[in-house]
Each structure stands twice: as structure tokens, then as C-alpha cells.
């Protein structure tokens, strides 16, 4: 859908127009007036001829022209008819504030009707159950809550929560919005649609995205590709879990990966930042929006005027997973000694001490010298400004700010600032920093998170479109897969050329003995049945069987278990190796591959990598080498060097098989990795 008329309206019609204090219709009209909106504004209410000094018409059809934006501020039951009229007239889009739709059981049918009407006419719709749109560059405040005056900026917010959007608009942290969209139930346009439309907006630097459900993974991947293509940063806060994760929880994959990890895998693949709370979401977007702030590389110089702050910030760098702070080069150390007071020690982090507080030139040169160090890719300066300071104290703080700004201008690498506590970032100072290309972040912990985001590589549009194509091919998770027996799952693997232990189903004890002769000892005997998982706990596995007597005893014991539809599977035991879990799953926002330590270590270590499909062997190998369990594969503590490349090829092929055969789940646990090659020992598969 074309959202341009909603985001750049030349005319607005407010349906349900009234002067009743506090009503959404009244506030919308007042907000447009306060913002200085330059387009035409009309009220629509058959009981009025004017409202707040604006002309008021009986219906949309009576307005001078079809409105670009129709604000619908009436009770839910009457909304579909108004949207029908707007669509038939050729209006540009609608904003629906009202609740009482799909967020409550009694409104589900009404929401479906509203969606059908909007889609039939191709009419973009923001809502229902949302707060609307604030397009600050257009001064178009299609918003039902009271708004204070704003300066437009470079950050957009798309939020499924109205309250998150309301609170964000009232934040004071040097945050300047370009557009805010409170999309509510997202009947006709989902958050991905808003992200893609906003990615093409001029003067936009970053988008903050607050999500309460997965939505359409293919559309989201395409929207993230558009952002990567246009250099628009993205920060994501995703809350809640979808039903798909609960459906997969019976397998190890659901317990280990879950929807949040799969969603995060897509976000990180897009070069977007993953936020832990709303505060961090807004700060990440604010940092990503500063032109020139993003730069790959891990060398951080950390500057403070306090030893305690420097230690806390260094600890936070380690906790966040940033590379160790590099020591300054000898030439840099020599220059810093010339600039620092005798009480200071040259080190990274650098405590330049409060003895030079307010010395613009020295602080400028310290920042510049630190940024010129060959091992430094970014400088972070901790800077606090208490509220309400005046006189000489205010002048000294202004001098510190000026020293940092001049140092940033002299530094060959990006410079950013962060306050130690969120409330110690002054709004005006933060704006001054951002205007000079210096991100200013509220709080040291969030500041370090922003460093990590700014140093991460951007997403690759072609790769994201590959992921979108795979998501469309998979058709989305339905959470109700039909399980195959282990034997049938392994036959799928063999047909696809994956290395699987030799074995076959047997029809009785004599046939099991014949399998011993064909396969050779040692053997494993197990029961195979659709949906039978965790065989060890069920007593449905007998290991290390060497002779005819053992085969017969094992077969008798297994045949005596009361498991419906089960048959006995006889396999040659695989040679020992490191155990991996390899799982391809469609139960998430996009189809993904999960690799983790296998066997009994799977949930215990909680150590998994999630790669959106398709996943090349090279991507999988990189992910395997990033696991905490990598010493098991790479010769740790005297263990042999194992064939990680073979394991990566196997895992990549499992992902391809999931997509080609339309499976919902293909879990291989364990895969044994040997010094040469890798072998699938157990397999679970579900047809979508």
C-alpha cells in the first residue's frame, strides 16, 4: 500500500469532530492548530457546521475533496462504514483510534470486517486501538492525545503500544523525532509496512521499532533490507512470545531457541540493534540516527574524570562483549603525558581527573590525541550535567562540553558521550552534541550498548531478501506439524545425501539377529514411532549390543513396551565424537537453523547460535566457532581437532532440506562430529 498521503497529507478530515474537552477528535484538531499544520482541515459531524473554528461537514462525501488523511474518532461499531466511505471516495488513508476490536474477543469479527473493507479499497489504515501518527516535518499531528511543541529530528518510532509512543514523545534526552506511528492492532498495515515506507523518508536517520508480535517475517526482512539499502539504522524491542514457540517446546529446539532468539537472529542479521527496554530502544535509535556515527571496528578509548566511573564503564564493556580496551600506543602515551596533570595515569580507560575541569584546550587535545591512536576506532567520553546549574558552575560545564566538541572535531574517529546516570544528560546539551555529529546517550550502561551497536556491521540487503524469499517459500509456521517416525526422518536425510548411521527397521527377533550380521557390532536397538521423543527417558533404547543373545534380549525388552505404533529400529553404533544439536525450524518469524552443544548438554549449557535460512556452510561454521562449547570441537584440553567444516556442511544441508520438503521441524540430536566427517545419530522431523 502507498502510505505517502498519510505521511504527507495535504488535507485532513476528522470524523466525529467535537469540541468536547479531552476527546480524541477535539485534541486532534487542537494538535493540528498548535503544530501549525499548513494543509486543509475539516470536521465531519452531521450535527455541527463548525468545530474549533474549522468548517464541519455532514459526511466525508460533503468535504471539498477526498481527504488525504481521514481521522476516525467514533465508537468501534460505526468505524467500518466510515472506512468503506473513505475508500470508495479515494481518500489517502485512515487513522482509527477506537478500541473494542481484535484486542478483545467480542471485537474480533468487527476487526476482520474492518480489515476486509480497507484491503478491498487498498486504503492504508493506522490502527485501530492506536494513538495515530505524528509527522513532525509535515506538522501533521494525527494524534488523539495532547502534544507539547516539538522540534523535528532524525528518529522515527513505530510502536504497537500506544503508551510507549506517548511516553517517548514526552521524553527529554536530546531525542528529536521525525515521525511517530502508534499502529495499534495493525489491521491493514503492519509495522513492517510502516518501516519500509519510512525508510525512504528524507532527513530520517534511524527507526525505533517496538513490537508485541512476530508479524510477517518475509515482509519484515524486506523492510529491513530497504533500511540497510538506504543507510537507515534500526533498533528493535520485541516483547512477548508467539504460539509457534510453545508448539515447538516439546522438541529441544523450542526450549533452546524459542521465538525471541529466532527473532533476534533476524534482527542481528539485518545489522539492527537489539534493545532490552524502552529506554535503551530510544537511545539506540538516537545514536544510530547521528550521521557518520556508525563505524565498524572494536578499538574503544574510554575517557572520564573519575577513577570509579572508568572502572564501572570498563566492566560494562566486558559484560557487553566488546573487545578489550586497547592500550595506547607509545606515541599517544607520550602526548597524553604532556597534557595530563601529574596525578593522572596514562591508561585506557583514561581518568584525566577533575584537575583540568573546564580547560577547553587541554580537554580538546586529550580527546583528539586519544582518537588519533592507531588502535582506537571510537572515543567515548563520560559527561554529566546536573539540572539547574547557574553562574560560574554553568560556565565550567559549558567549557567541558566545548572541549569535547572541539576534540570531536579534531579526532579522526567518531566521538560520543554518555552520562553516568540517565537523568544527568541535559536535553539542550544532548541536542548540541548530536547536531555536531556526537551521539549523546543517557546512562553509561546504555552508552556501552550504543557503542556495540555503532560498531556492528550494517546489514546486507541481498542477504535479507534471501531470507525473505525463504520465509515466503516456507509459508510461515502453523504450529501443528505432523511428526514422522525416526526411521522415516532418517530416510529423508539419506535421500538428501546427509550422512546418517546405517540401520533398518526389523520385523522380529530373528530379523534383528540378521541385521547384526549385516551391520556388524556394536549395535543400538530402539523403538521408532511418530511423535516418540526422549527415548532414553522412556526406556526405548538399548546401547552397545555385541552378540545374538544381546540382540534377542534387547528386542524382547523393547517389544514389551506399551508404545502405540512403535517398531524396532536396529542401527550400527556410530564412532564417538563431540555431540551437536542441529535443527532447522519454520516455527519462528523466519525459518532458521539452530546449532548448539548436543546430547545432555543442550539445555544445560543454553549455548545456541541461530541463523536465518538459507544458511551457507561458511555462515554455519562461523556460528559454530562462536559457541561457548567450541573447545569441544577445536582440541580443547587435549581433545582432538574435529571436522567443524563437515558439521557445517551437514547443518547447511539440513536447512536446505527443511525448505525443499516443506518441513516444520528437522532436529538432529545428536550429530557426532569426528576428526573426519560428521554423522547424524538421531532425528526428529515434522511435516508442516
Search tags:
688 residues, alpha/beta, Rossmann fold, Dna Ligase, domain 1, D-amino Acid Aminotransferase, Chain A, domain 1, seven-stranded mixed beta sheet, 24 helices, 30 strands, flat
Structure commentary:
- It is a single chain.
- Among the domains are: 300-455, Succinyl-CoA synthetase domains (Rossmann fold, 3-Layer(aba) Sandwich); 502-572, Dna Ligase, domain 1, CATH 3.30.1490.20; 578-687, ATP-grasp fold, B domain (D-amino Acid Aminotransferase, Chain A, domain 1), CATH 3.30.470.20.
- It is 38% helix and 20% strand.
- The strands form five sheets. Strands 3-4-2-1-5-6-7 form a seven-stranded mixed β-sheet, with helices on both faces.
- The longest helix has 20 residues, at 391-410.
- The chain starts with a helix and ends with a strand.
- Residues 242-257 have low confidence and may be disordered.
In short:
The chain has 688 residues and is α/β, with parallel strands linked by helices. Among the domains are: 300-455, 3-Layer(aba) Sandwich (Rossmann fold); 502-572, Dna Ligase, domain 1; 578-687, ATP-grasp fold, B domain (D-amino Acid Aminotransferase, Chain A, domain 1, 2-Layer Sandwich), CATH 3.30.470.20.
